[in-house]
Write a structure and sequence with these properties.
The complex is a heterodimer of chains A (153) and B (503). By secondary structure, chain A is an all-alpha fold. Chain A is built from four helices and two strands, in the order H-E-E-H-H-H. Chain A is 73% helix and 3% strand. Chain B has one domain. Chain B is globular. The chains are: A mainly alpha (153), B mainly alpha (503). The interface between A and B is large, with 63 and 60 residues.
């Protein structure tokens, strides 16, 4: 009987996180002059996290899982999502320097070309069209300010 | 007779062409800002407040209130179609609304949301008209112990958000509660869990976290397979894009549940539409004949929270107009407006300015009809967004998310937070942790801690204050029953299985 590795890992991480919350909470005053202090609530949260994470770890080692996908297939799928996430974070990092329009087009092109294997021209077209729609709706119609580069968009 | 006479006075005020025009403008603007994440009614009303100085005051409050309840209508659209909650109170709508869209029933989900909002809006206005003063007096009996109990009752709804594992739901909720502690402690001014980031002193932005956990995570999950899973189906034929009579019949209780819970929670200052929507969803699931189907695209799971968050808008006007107490950001700005125009919101407002109060009540009736007429024909149009190919839809979702989150505070830091929560939401989905439980904890954490600490200050550390008072004791008893019920059911099913094995 194989244990549920995902749940076990989640349990370990959350238990460690709970310990961190407790450690920070005990450094904050538990009681203040006016009543319960800033450490009061987080301390009990940390204890709750450790208890429930322990229960999850226990449950994961005493139960079996039905793996339907091979590990390599599952890993490949997760990598596609994670590379999409990295692209989102890179686009966010670029917002402050090259502005919303260009970073959004970059993100769109990456998703369509690198992950969906579609033609570059289609990707650029979709990116530009959506960027124009966003400018029209948010910037012009609703007067929402978006991150801009030195060239104004 | 009094109420009828007053209502007639209200209609004579609300039906003037200028008031009809501003009521319409308000609800349309409200719907638009409700659809877009981040740009909420509070910001919109604050921006427009200076423009109302030169308007007739009744016209001004009619327009601003239109924005307030119109936004509640619009909040469901992106929740259902794109899994992006337009408002915090629309988070619960994502659970079944988005699943309905995935099952090819986006149209009926949008339609039932408009109908539920209409019914709840109307019930809310009736409540505002008939029981505003006594309800406001009852709401004043809510002291910190009662608020603590109400928050615990809200958290008990985690039972109904848990999928296969109650432990995972509790863990997600605890992480949400911890997220709510980030920032400056309001009692002592001490900073907690800020990791040295000054931008975290004000806490984690709720919209950024919610959009990350729902919308960004949704895109990431769908990126797993090339061609984007079987995400976007849409029924053919315009007839199939609206709810059927059976759908409406199925939602009878949900309409009532959402309307009543939304109105009463709305009348409690500080409780908020998000609590109301979670509570009504929990109640709907608790009394449902098929609770196991909730979360897979059940139409009652859309009608109840949508009704609740709309009735809440009427409820929130009760303490504002009868006591001068704002229940949230938007009503606080409306209060500012009333004071700016020279009114003294309080027990005498209705007697001293009947045309203002009754004109507003009547305009809300009219506004709700306008919203229904405006929104139902738009349902098939909105639903067409799902016909977009996935390679257009994903960037569209990401773009709306970035713009929506950035526009709240013009903060790139919030957009970073959204990205990080996107990864967290993705991991939660992979490991079957319910994201809504995290959001529930995050929404209620601040209020829960504040109410608990205030209660303990009141009693000088004596915990019995939480149980000894009638309202808080009752609410805590109900919360305990909700939390214990699944365990009792499980034990009972084990016993039945054991008896069958022995037999």
């Amino acid at each position: 009987m194989a244990c549920d590795k995902g749940n076990l890992a989640a349990g370990v991480v959350l238990a460690a996180f709970g310990v961190y919350v407790i450690l920070v909470a005990v450094r904050l005053p538990y009681v203040s002059e006016v009543g319960p202090g800033p450490g009061f609530f987080p301390l009990w949260l940390g204890i709750g996290l450790v208890l429930f994470a322990g229960t999850l770890m226990f449950a994961s080692v005493t139960s079996s899982t039905n793996e339907t996908k091979s590990e390599s297939q599952s890993w490949r799928m997760t990598m596609r999502s994670l590379s999409g996430w990295v692209a989102v974070m890179v686009a966010i990092a670029l917002l402050g320097t090259i502005g919303f329009v260009l970073s959004f087009i970059f993100l769109t092109v990456f998703l369509i070309v690198a992950l969906e294997r579609r033609p570059v021209l289609l990707a650029v077209g979709v990116g530009i069209a959506l960027a124009v729609v966003f400018q029209l709706i948010f910037v012009i119609a609703l007067d929402v300010s978006l991150p801009k580069a030195v060239w104004g968009f | 007779m009094d109420a009828l006479g007053n209502l007639l006075l209200g209609f004579s005020v609300a039906l003037t062409p200028i008031n009809l025009f501003w009521c319409f403008t308000g609800v349309v603007l409200g719907t638009v800002v409700g659809v877009l994440p981040g740009l909420g009614p509070a910001a919109t009303i604050a921006m427009l407040l200076p423009l109302t100085l030169k308007m007739d005051h009744t016209t001004a409050i009619i327009a601003l209130a239109g924005i307030f309840y119109g936004a509640r209508y619009g909040g469901s659209t992106t929740s259902i179609l794109l899994n992006i909650p337009g408002e915090s109170s629309s988070v619960v709508t994502c659970l079944d609304g988005y699943q309905m869209a995935r099952n090819g029933r986006a149209g009926p989900a949008l339609g039932i949301s408009a109908i539920a909002s209409f019914v709840a809006g109307t019930v809310g206005v009736l409540g505002l008209m008939l029981i505003a003063p006594p309800l406001a007096r009852f709401a004043l009996r809510f002291a910190p112990p009662e608020y603590f109990a109400l928050m615990v009752l809200g958290l008990a709804m985690v039972v109904f958000l848990a999928g296969e594992s109650m432990v995972k739901a509790m863990l997600a909720m605890f992480v949400g509660l911890w997220l709510a502690t980030i920032g400056t402690d309001l009692f002592t001014g001490e900073s907690r869990f800020t990791f040295g980031q000054a931008k975290l002193l004000g806490g984690v932005d709720f919209i950024a976290a919610t959009v990350g956990v729902f919308a960004i995570a949704e895109v990431l999950v769908n990126l797993e397979s090339k061609g984007g899973a079987e995400l976007f189906k849409l029924a053919k034929g315009w007839k199939n894009l609206l709810p059927t009579l059976q759908d409406i019949k199925d939602c009878r209780f949900a309409f009532l549940n959402g309307s009543v819970i939304g109105f009463f929670i709305g009348a409690l200052p500080g409780a908020g539409a998000t609590v109301a929507s979670f509570l009504s969803y929990g109640l709907e699931k608790a009394v449902s004949k098929h609770p196991e189907k909730f979360g897979t695209g059940v139409i009652e799971g859309v009608a109840a929270p949508e009704g609740a968050n709309n009735a809440d808008a009427s409820g929130a006007l009760v303490p504002l107009l009868t006591l001068g107490i704002p229940g949230g950001n938007t009503t606080a700005i409306l209060l500012g407006g009333l004071i700016l125009w020279g009114y003294k919101p309080g027990p005498l407002l209705i007697q001293e300015h009947p045309e203002l109060f009754w004109g507003l009540v009547a305009s809300m009736y009219i506004g709700n009809v306008m919203l229904l007429i405006l929104n139902l024909p738009l349902v098939p149009l909105f639903a067409q967004i799902l016909r977009l190919p996935y390679y257009v839809l994903y960037p569209l979702i990401l773009g709306i998310s970035i713009v929506g989150v950035y526009s709240v505070n013009n903060s790139l830091f919030d957009v970073w937070v959204m990205g990080l929560f996107g990864l967290l939401g993705f991991l939660m989905r992979k490991l079957d942790f319910p994201a809504a439980a995290l959001i529930l904890g995050m929404v209620l954490g601040d209020g829960l801690e504040r109410a608990l600490r205030q209660s303990l200050m009141m009693s000088q550390g004596d915990l019995t204050i939480l149980f000894a008072r009638p309202i808080s004791g009752t609410l805590l008893f109900v919360a305990a029953a909700i939390l214990v019920l699944p365990a009792v059911r499980k034990v009972r099913s084990w016993r039945v299985a054991a008896i069958e094995r022995e037999g």
